[in-house]
Amino acid sequence: MAERLRMLNTIVLPVVAPMLVCGAVLIIAWRLRDRGRLIRATALGLGYLSCHIIVDGWPAFPPHETWQWLFALVVGAMVIGGLDAVGRQPLILRVIGAAVLAGTSGWLIVLANQEHLWIHRTTVAALLLLWLLTMQLITSRSRGASVSMPLCVAFVGVSLVLVLSGNAKLAQLAGGAAACLGAATLVAWWRAPAGFGCESIAVAGVLTIGLAYSGYSLSFSNVPAWAYLVAVAAPLAVWIGALPQSRKLGGWKAVTLTTLITLVISGIAVVRAYIAWRADSANDPYL
Amino acid sequence: MKIRVVLVSLLAGATVAGLAAFSPADPQTTNTQTTNTQTTNTQATNTQATETYKVDPVHTTAIFRIKHLGVTYFYGRFNETTGSFTLNTNNPSEMFFDVQIKTQSLDTNATRRNNHLKSPDFFNAKQFPTISFKSKSVQSSGENTYTVSGDMTLHGVTKPITVQMEFVGQGDKGARFGYRAGFDVTFTIKRSDYGMNYMQGMLGDEVTIMVGLEGARQ
Q: How many domains does chain B have?
């Protein structure tokens, strides 16, 4: 019985806990109305941090493994998101904030003994900066499920790619982020203004790129780099929802369209990862 | 007079024969004897002088076992072991072990499991490519057994451990192998002590490591 409970905790708790934390924070923020903007900016981050602690224990500082820097980077991203929530920052400040976050992430999550170290660092930083700026631009006028639902689907995709590349722990963390975004979607369904806005993009960006890159660089599977890239690019489908034609659809129809496109893009990445997983050893019954 | 001449001749002959008996009769025999003496001396020296051995990766085996689901043990091995050790059975405090195991050479006869074990869930073999052991003190603890204390680094965490090593044997194994010596050691660690906590319950915490170490004298 104790064994079963432990296994249940290993699998269920990292999904349920971040969902509850994120949902609760969003509801509290909504109840506080304008005063709750800063709290809302921390919802995704706090949800993820709870998942991180459940999966990997209380973090050490400095972290022992490169991917564990994600904990500190998410805290940093929450600060940047919080500043944006308190008052709309000038464009230049937002670009600087995104650049600092991207550069720090590239510096910290790439292995110091990595071959072509600077190419990896620059690529991670550039990808994250591009992702952050693009998503901030798209989501600056969006709120609620139109942001959280496609992101939720994208994180499920990242999680599946990670588990198929043999990174169960990182997959659980991506699953935890997906659970937070799922909770945010439910909250937005209940009360639209209570959902996510662009203040959560910094956390989402660090997690998407950080988890996918860690999975790619630390994995021994044959999942190609482009599968990870497609998985992290999937949320950019939110662009579709921002187009005038999509806006005409209005409300949940536009959200569903965006989510379906995200699902297709993520699906491509997952199918490619599955092919690699099968090819690793067709008759291998492991997992 | 004739008798004196005969006696002197016999005495001289006997002297020559006697001297001949103690003189080298066959140069080859002499060389062999010398070589034999040298071999004996070398073997004696082996136990007295400290000599360095390089780990033979082909004849060195590193395996581990861990409990799975609480019902059985599964075994894995590491295919690449390097390092060196010094041997001095008469003065064990002079002995030293420095062994490295490449984590990327992990092999459990299942590709997906290998990939999983090498991922950040367990060994994180890209970030921590070696498991190493460096001895700090060696003491004799019985006939052909030694208590070896030192630092073991696994998953980037260094911890002091003490193990009982069995000295299996040594000897000149001909031109192909040269002079060899070997040890065998079995010890148990807790993986959680080294920050490898994932999947506790499904996999046991205790890991038994068995190493058969063979070295070629340098």
A: 2
